[in-house]
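Subject: mismatched residue count in predicted assembly?

I count 980 residues in my input, but I want to confirm that the predicted structure covers every chain. Input:
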Amino acid sequence: MGKFLTSRSENYSQWYNELVVKADLAENSAVRGCMVIKPYGYAIWEKMHDALDKMFKETGHVNAYFPLFIPKSFLSREADHVEGFAKECAVVTHYRLKTNPDGSGVIVDPEAKLEEELIVRPTSETIIWSTYKNWIQSYRDLPILCNQWANVVRWEMRTRLFLRTAEFLWQEGHTAHATKEEAEVEARKMLDVYAKFAEEFMAVPVIKGVKTANERFAGALDTYCIEALMQDGKALQAGTSHFLGQNFAKAFDVKFLNKEGKQELVWATSWGVSTRLMGALIMSHSDDNGLVLPPKLAPIQVVIVPIFKGDEENAKMRELGNKLKADLEAKGLSVKFDDRDTQKPGWKFAQYELQGVPVRIAFGARDLENGTVEIARRDTLEKETYPVGQAVDICTKLMDEIQANIYKKALDFRAANITKVDTWEEFEAALAKGGFVSAHWDGTTETEVAIKEKTKATIRCIPLGNPLEEGKCILTGKPSKQRVLFAIAY
Amino acid sequence: MGKFLTSRSENYSQWYNELVVKADLAENSAVRGCMVIKPYGYAIWEKMHDALDKMFKETGHVNAYFPLFIPKSFLSREADHVEGFAKECAVVTHYRLKTNPDGSGVIVDPEAKLEEELIVRPTSETIIWSTYKNWIQSYRDLPILCNQWANVVRWEMRTRLFLRTAEFLWQEGHTAHATKEEAEVEARKMLDVYAKFAEEFMAVPVIKGVKTANERFAGALDTYCIEALMQDGKALQAGTSHFLGQNFAKAFDVKFLNKEGKQELVWATSWGVSTRLMGALIMSHSDDNGLVLPPKLAPIQVVIVPIFKGDEENAKMRELGNKLKADLEAKGLSVKFDDRDTQKPGWKFAQYELQGVPVRIAFGARDLENGTVEIARRDTLEKETYPVGQAVDICTKLMDEIQANIYKKALDFRAANITKVDTWEEFEAALAKGGFVSAHWDGTTETEVAIKEKTKATIRCIPLGNPLEEGKCILTGKPSKQRVLFAIAY
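Triage response: the counts match. Full output below for your records.
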C-alpha cells in the first residue's frame, strides 16, 4: 500500500498536498489562492459545522448574517485593525462590466466606479460594530451573542489548501457586553468550546493559551488560542478567541445607558475557527496510506465491501450487505455498501483507506458459507474475522475505540514532543527535532522578533495556568518569570 | 392591535418594509443594497436551509464549495450568460490598500492591480463548469450532482429587503449528465422538490411552469419555475430550475467518453432558491398585526406568557411554565417561556404576534386556581381556555391545524385570483384587480414585450400540463394554442 502517496518521511509537505487532492477533499481553482472544497471534504466540514453550531447554541448564541462588503473607511476606524488587514484584501472598485468596443469579451465599465471602494470582508468586526451601534441603547439590549457562518478573503501570497487560502470558510462570533468581566468570561468560554470541540470531535489535543502582544489579533487586548501539534513537529493555531476591550465600541461610538443612567462604552469579544481545521485534522492523524478520520467527523463511518465473482454471488452478497447496512444505520452509524462491479475489491480497500473510512467490513464466498465477516479498522490497520451476528456490535464499539485511540496517539505524540530547554543551544537543538519548546523569554517583543528571525520559531502561546518559575531568557539571559511555548508553526 | 404597523390596505409596500424591520427579520446595512439578516430572520432561513438540504440529499445530491470570485474572462465564454450578468456585478480590481501618504486613512494601492479583474459571483455556472472539466473524463464520472450554499452579488439598483438585494444567500445546484433526457428529468425533479418545499413547509401554494424564451435564465434552454401569489395580487417567482443543454459544456469544453468510446459534450442543469423565499413567506400569510409563520418554519412554535403581579405569583407560575415547556419540548416542539418582569403581558402578546409565533399559552392567577390556561392561535387570533392537562395535546394538534389552515387560506386566495380573460379590456381590468391572469398569447417575444410595456405585466409561466386550447392573442388577435399566466410581479 501507500503507492498512492509520497510517504511522510520522504516529504511531509508533498504528502499533505497529495493527500488533500487524492482523498477528494479539495483542489486549487482557476482563481489564484481560492480552493474548491470537493464533496467529500465538504461533508467533513459540514460535520464540523453542525457540531460547533450546536455547541454555540447550547452556550446561548444565535446566528445572523452581515454584509460581505465593508466600506473602505470602516477599516480605518480602528488603527491596529486596519494595519493588520489592509495589506491583504480584495478591493471592489466598480459595479459593472460592458462589452469591449473592439468586440472581444467584456471590460470594466469606467463609468461604473464606486464612490467609495468596498473591501471583501477579511473579518467582520467593523461592519458588525457599525450595525451593533443601532441595536444597543440600554443595558437591557446586552449582551448580544451573535455568530456568523461566512466566507472571508485575505489576499495571501503563498497559499496551501485548507491551511492558507485567499478565500476560506469560517465562523466568527461577535459579542457585546455591559462589563469587562463579562466579556473576558465570554472570550474564555468560547476558547473552552473550541478546545472541547478539537479534543472530543477532531481527536486533536490542544494547548489553551494566550498570545503575546506581538501575536495578537489586530485590534484585540488579548488573544486566546488553541495550539495543536502536527505529526511533522510543527504547531498549528486551530482557533482564536479575542477579548477586544472597548476598541471597536470606541471606533463605532457604541454606547449603552447603564442601570445608573450613565452612558458607557460596550465591551466586545470575537472568536473564530475556519476551514483551516481541516488541515489540522488531516495532519494530526493521517498516515502513508491516506486519511485517518475520527469516527465523529467521518462522512462514512463504515464501508461494506463484498468480494464476489460474477452476478450470482453478487446477489447473495447484496442481501447480506444491505442487511448489515440497515442494521448499522439503525444504530445511528453512516454506512456505505459498495457493491459496484466496475472496481475490484483491492482497489476499493485502498480507496477507502485513502479516504479514511474508520471501519471496513468485507466478506467473500467462504465468509458467506462460514457466516463470518472480516472487520478492519483504519487507525491500526488491524483486521479480524468475526461471526456475522457480532458485526454490528463490534462496529459500534469500534467507533468509540477508534475515536479514543487516535486521540491518545496524538496526545502521546505531543507529550513526547514538548521539550524543556534552558540554553540557546538546547533551544536550537529542540527546534531542529520539532515540537513545542518550553523556554524562558524576557517578555519583550524585541526578543521575540529576534528569536523568530534567527530560528523561524514563534511564541505559540503562554499556556493558561502556566506555573510561575524564575529563569533566564534563552536569548538575552534577562530574568523571566515563566516559560512560554515556542514552535515553528503553520 | 395593529398599532405597530401600517395596515396592508393603507400601503402594502410600507407594511412589508415595516414588518421586516419591526419583526426583527432584517435591516439595511451601511453598504448600499446589502442587508443584515437579524437573528430571528436568520433562524427562519436556517429552518428553510435544513429542510431543503435534507430534500437535496434525499434526492442524491451532495454539497461542495466553489470560489467566490470568477475571472472576468470566464463570464464571456457563454454569450447569453455574460449578456445577462455583466451589467450588474461587483468587480475586484485590486488586492491591497495602503496608508494614504497624507495620513488620512487608507487608499487603494495602485501597484496592487490585478492582471485580470475578478467578478464576485452573481451565479456560479462558469467557475463550476471550469472545475467540472477536470472532474469529468468518462461516463463513469457522471452524473455529478452538486449543490452549493453560498452568498452571491448582483448589483441591483433598486433594492428591497429579502426581495431584491445586492448580496443575498442562496443555494445553487449544478449537475452534469451523460444524456439530454437525464438532465431534463433532473431539472424537473428539482422543480418538484421546490414546489413540495414551498407547499409543505412554507404553506405557500405555487404554480409549476416553464418560462418563455424572453424570461429564461441567461444561458439556459429551458427555465422551469414556481410562481406564488402574494396578498397584494402580485406574483413572486420563488425558485427556478434550468435545463442548460450543452451550453456550458461547450463554453468550457467539458466532454466525456461514452460507453461506445466516443467523446460527447456533457448535459447540464442548475437550480436555485434564495433568501427571496423569506419575502414570499412574509407576504403570503402575514396580517396587520405582524408575521404569521407556518409552524414548520417557526423558530419558536409555542410561547408561554404568565400574567403575574409580584414575585410570589411569578414563582408559582414559573413552576407551571417550566413544566409546560418541558412537556411540549418532549413532544418535539420549540418553546419559549417568557417570564421576564421587565415587560408587561400585553406588550409580550403584541410582540409575539408581531413575530408570528403560531401558538401562545397564557395563564393568570385565576387560571392557576382553576387549573386552566388560555391558548391563542396566531393564524385566526382565536383564543380559548382549556384544562391545563390538555394543553400539550392541543398545542401539538394546533401545529398541524395551523400549517394546514394557512396553506388552505393561501390556496383559496389564489383560486379566487386567477382570472380567465379573452379580450384586451378584460385583461387590463383583471390586472388592475390583481392576481394571475390566464390569457391567450401569440407566442412571440415581440408581443410579450409590448404587453409588458403597456401594462407592466409579464408572462409568469406556461403552466406544466397546460391544456391546449385554440384562441386568439389578447393583444394581436393572432391565433394561439394555449393560455399562459400573466401577472404584475415582484
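The longest helix of chain A spans residues 391-415. Marking this ticket as 'not a bug'.
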